[in-house]
Prior knowledge:
This protein is of the alpha/beta class. 24% of the residues lie in helices and 34% in strands. The longest helix has 17 residues, at 398-414. It starts with 16 loop residues before the first helix and ends in a 9-residue tail after the last helix. This is SUF system FeS cluster assembly SufBD core domain-containing protein. It comes from Cajanus cajan (Pigeon pea). Residues 181-409 form the SUF system FeS cluster assembly SufBD core domain.
Amino acid sequence: MSGIALSPAALSPVIPNRIRKLRPKASLHAQQAFTSDPYVLELAETLEESLPSSPSTPLPLHNLRHASSEALLSTPWPSRRHEPFRFTDLSFIRQSRILPVHLPPAVYAGALSALSSPSLLQRVSQLLSQFHHHDIFWSINGIAAPDLTLIYVPENCHVDNPIHLHYTPPHATTPTPNTMHLSNPRVLVIVEKGAHVQITEEFSNENQNHPYWTNAAFEAVIGEAANLTHSYIQTQSFRAAHIKWTSVRQESSSTYKLTEVSSGGKVGRHNLHIQQLGPHTVTELSTLHLSVGDQTQDLHSSLVLDHPRGYSRQLHKCIVTHSQGQAVFDGNIKVNRYAQQTDAGQLTRSLLLEPRATVNVKPNLQIVADDVKCSHGAAISDLEQSQLLYFQARGIDINTARRVLIFAFGGEVIDKFPNSSIRDKVRSQIKTLLDPSSDSSSL
């Protein structure tokens, strides 16, 4: 595979040509910010140079790359000294050679570059400018995405068959030490008023020892009384970095349901931001994270309710079976002043199956409105002895009892996938990871 290599060694504060043009001259402080992190600057240059310059690049994509370039100029690479990443070590990405990956246009069903409708192109441009919940990885995706997959569902259209977006890693080659290939898939979903659609994102893997970095972004705008059911499955290599942004804007009376199961990656991080923009809005989030090796599974979520009679439920579960594995949950639900008669609930439950396994959870429910029904809770434990004794009293050995209880713990989330074939596939994957010697077909 051809690509531009980014070496972790001997980094110098080289400023890309486009970035040089953007550097302000009036402020010394601003100039210093441009060179605050040589690694980020060189990464930006690598990503910009890896993309072909074409006058036919759609204006929204051009504007997105330009805005992302500006954002990167003053953004340092996150370390564990930064509070949002206190429990997430990303140093192994920084210490690797980054080789951008550009998938062929054929894998993007509905590429923005192939869009021929000027009015829809103008709408896409307007909607893209309304997403402001960036961090460094959002900006990296924006500057490096080779195209943007657009899923557009017109008003009152019900799509009967699910749309399945399947992401595969770069073609496996003999890995070079400290080298990672980087891909930046980006999706924009527009579900117009009264429309319904199911979308599945699956990030799979062919080689559990293949190092690479997937840096994905998913944006959705759900119109009035529209419905988006979103399934997200992540089973990437145990040597990979998987970082995902999901940002959703919901109009009044709309419904967004997310079911997520993540078990891959040396680092798997999902940044999830949802904003309810009207009354009678429904948001349901169900997540299962599994760490069976030296892995970090991380969910940072934010849900903002600003209008009356909103409804939300968030269920987060994680299982850590390795002494060096960890899970992170930082969930924030904000019920603002005008979100009266809101019904919001948040629950996080964690199973730690090794003495030195780690979980860091911070459920957070901020309530400003005074006429609400809200609750949240957190539980961290091993399996309860009373449950094991119940099985033993009925002649079931303790190892079998533990397997059954662990599968049942995760099954509550898996059962929420709307598609039976996805449920069966995920059950088989989880059982194989938790019990490699078992026959997954018996689950």
